[in-house]
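Project outcomes to date are best conveyed with an example. Our students and postdoctoral researchers have been running inverse folding experiments weekly, and each run begins with a structure described purely in tokens. The record below, which covers 276 residues, was selected by the lab manager from last quarter's runs and is presented without edits.
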């Protein structure tokens, strides 16, 4: 039927052209953004999954920052502890030398000055072993340092404190300890040896704590990378595929325009029916 009021062919051609236009816009958006799912209207379920995973990645970023701060605090404590261990070795040498009964007063006095200087240096090292407000070796905290270990904040890793202050349970040398006499020096040798053993044991525990943080940091980074890859698999556009689709849709668009143009010429046939 030839009708000038209803052009079915043009309507069908227009429907297909509109579909092609919509697909073309979607492909162009994917190429511009690099995402096949850029918003919930593209694919609501996939977008929701990706957003949840992005939340986990953001959480693991905070976990990494927390672990890095904790690691730095422990590393400072380890460095200070190693310095204390070195100082104790020197102090043992001074005390042992001063315990010699044949030593003259002037020499023992000189050794005592060196010894007390080393003793005071331990106190200085302990008081300055702070990072981000945490000092793990001065006894200011008994709970240690706790860092985040999971993206929801429910799991944590704690590294305990090791109080290396003078007159403590680890460094048992008194704050006023000296080797001014042969007897004091003889007693001090055993005290320094015990303190050295204690400090080295404390360093081993701090080292274990540092290793725990290092292992967790590596795990969190790997997990975050895996999640990021998973998000990409869900929402990233395949640019080679999108490029091929773009060319195909552009051809379909041109053909659709031509088809619509041909369909729009159908009513012209009615004029020929009335020409004499």
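After processing, the design step wrote out the following sequence:
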């Amino acid at each position: 039927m030839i009708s000038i009021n209803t052009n079915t062919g043009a309507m069908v051609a227009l429907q297909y052209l509109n579909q092609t236009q919509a697909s073309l816009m979607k492909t162009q958006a994917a190429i511009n953004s690099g995402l096949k799912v850029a918003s919930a209207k593209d694919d609501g379920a996939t977008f929701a999954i990706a957003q949840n995973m992005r939340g986990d990645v953001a959480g693991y970023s905070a976990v990494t920052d927390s672990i890095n701060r904790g690691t730095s605090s422990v590393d400072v404590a380890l460095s200070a502890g190693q310095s204390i261990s070195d100082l104790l070795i020197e102090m043992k040498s001074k005390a042992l030398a001063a315990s010699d009964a044949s030593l003259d007063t002037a020499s023992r006095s000189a050794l005592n000055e060196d010894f007390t200087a080393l003793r005071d240096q331990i106190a200085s090292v302990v008081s300055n072993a702070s990072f981000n407000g945490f000092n793990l070796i001065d006894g200011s905290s008994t709970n240690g340092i706790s860092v985040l270990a999971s993206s929801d904040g429910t799991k944590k890793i704690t590294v305990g404190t090791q109080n290396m202050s003078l007159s403590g349970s680890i460094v048992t040398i008194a704050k006023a300890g000296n080797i001014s006499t042969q007897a004091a020096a003889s007693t001090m040798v055993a005290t320094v040896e015990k303190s050295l053993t204690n400090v080295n044991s404390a360093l081993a525990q701090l080292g274990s704590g540092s290793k725990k943080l290092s292992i967790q940091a590596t795990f969190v980074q790997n997990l975050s990378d895996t999640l990021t890859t998973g998000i990409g698999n869900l929402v990233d556009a395949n640019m080679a595929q999108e490029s091929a689709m773009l060319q195909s849709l552009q051809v379909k668009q041109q053909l659709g325009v031509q088809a619509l143009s041909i369909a729009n010429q159908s009513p012209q046939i009615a004029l020929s029916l009335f020409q004499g």
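The longest strand covers residues 145-148. Residues 1 and 16 are 22 Å apart (CA to CA). The training component of this project remains on track.
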